[in-house]
Design a protein that fits this description.
The chain is an alpha/beta fold. The protein has one domain (about 15-130): Ribosomal protein L13 (Ribosomal Protein L13p, Chain: A), CATH 3.90.1180.10. Helix content is about 30%, strand content about 20%. The chain is built from five helices and six strands; from the N terminus they run βαβαββαααββ. Strands 5-2-1-6 form a four-stranded parallel sheet, covered by helices on one side. The protein has a two-stranded antiparallel ribbon with strand order 3-4. Strand 1 (about 15-20), helix 1 and strand 2 form a beta-alpha-beta unit. Helix 1 crosses helix 4 and helix 3 crosses helix 4. This protein is one of the early assembly proteins of the 50S ribosomal subunit, although it is not seen to bind rRNA by itself. It is important during the early stages of 50S assembly.
């Protein structure tokens, strides 16, 4: 019997809805990364992008343990001299809660050519509303 290898023409993509209310940031991000890669499917093949779409709602209600709200710092550089910007997690959650989940999931995906393609299938929204009702996403508990 031959080993099954999925082809990109055979990929069937589903839509999943995840509610981030009260969920721990890292644990949620790792489960979302598995769905984006397609590791939850029996047809998983490492070199084929066979993952599904994930819609995350209530990103502003994410939970972090310990003192990470003040101690975790996000770094960004403007590419100008002295342009290093440091933003604590507490401020990021107030201004851009979607970006917190997006960066956590991005860090948990493999660093290869498929990462950007997988990240395009992640849709994150701060509140409970999302514009993807037509795709009929299945609620999933992580």
């Amino acid at each position: 019997m031959k080993t099954f290898m999925q082809r990109k023409e055979d990929v069937q993509r589903d839509w999943y809805l995840v509610d981030a209310t009260g969920k721990t940031l890292g644990r949620l991000a790792s489960e979302i990364a598995k769905i984006l890669m397609g590791k939850h499917k029996p047809t998983y093949t490492p070199h084929v992008d066979g993952g599904d779409f994930v819609v995350v709602v209530n990103a502003e209600k994410i939970f972090v343990t310990g003192k990470k709200l003040d101690k975790k710092i996000y770094y960004k550089h403007t590419l100008y001299p002295g342009g290093l910007k440091e933003t604590p997690l507490r401020k990021m959650l107030q201004e851009k809660p979607e970006e917190v989940i997006r960066l956590a999931v991005r860090g948990m995906l493999p660093k290869n050519k498929l990462r950007d393609r997988r990240m395009r299938r992640l849709k994150v929204y701060a509140g409970p509303e999302h514009p993807h009702k037509a795709q009929n996403p299945k609620p999933i508990e992580l």
